[in-house]
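Lab notebook: predicted structure, single chain.

Context: the supervisor wants predicted structures on file for every construct in the current expression panel, including those that have not yet been purified. This is the next one on the list. No modifications to the sequence; it matches the entry in the shared construct table.
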Amino acid sequence: MLAASIGFCVALAARTTEAQSDPAHDRPKEGDLLVRVGDAAPTPLTPDSIPLGAGQVLAWPMDPVSNVLRDGSRLNKVLLVRLDPAVLDPQTGGRAADGVVGYSAICPHTGCEVVNWWPDRQILECPCHNSQYDPKEGARVIAGPSPRSLAALPLRIADGKLTVARPFIGRLGIQQV
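Prediction complete. Output recorded below exactly as produced.
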């Protein structure tokens, strides 16, 4: 019995180490490109790929050298919204690229994806428990049970493409009980 338990622990540790060393599990890194979730042939997004005020586009970061999609963890999924730069608060504007802001697509309340967009108010909403976020103000919580804002992903434009400027700012994942 002891040998079986030790064997299980060794196998689990090996799988955990393998997942940790898999570049698809790595968090977005400076210089990563962003590609639309579900694209058969990942093509780097540009600011023009994100229609102004039309709602979020879900994206994965992609290593620009190896072309490895960082899709091994759902915490790497990014939502992109393009807004008029004039409506962004100064801190959010400093992290935006031509009005495109990037945030974690995972709601901190229970881990659902933030997929609803209210164009008249320009807010994001999680469909599970209706937490609402203002992307113009750092995705701060404006309604619902979410314990905190969505983590922000600073962006820049390099060679015309949306690129990760710095790692996520803020905590990823759900609230801890």
